[in-house]
Amino acid sequence: MSTTGYTAKNDGEKTVRAGTVVWGLIAIAVGILVLLAQLVDINLDTGLVLMGLLVGAGVALVVGGLISMTGRKSNHHSTTETG
Questions:
Q1: How far apart (Å, rounded) are the C-alpha atoms in residues 22 and 30?
Q2: Separation of alpha carbons 80 and 83, rounded Å
Q3: Strands 14-16 and 6-8
Q4: Domain that holds residue 41
Q5: What is the mean pLDDT of residues 58-76?
Q6: Cα dihedral across residues 20, 21, 26, 27: positive or negative
């Protein structure tokens, strides 16, 4: 299992993992929300914000996985037909 954040394709091309992007965006969103709460004095409902972030992350991970799966299927078909 690689923890570098990207995977290598058969032809040597590297692709970014969906999970890496999603968790990176969550970290950025939390950081921005904390900064805004401190600088602009916004009162945020912590539970509601966390639920929204988790739902958004879950949807993004599922969509990223589905896109990755369909990409692998089409890539697999093209390599088996030509190879």
A1: 12
A2: 5
A3: antiparallel
A4: 16-82
A5: 82
A6: positive
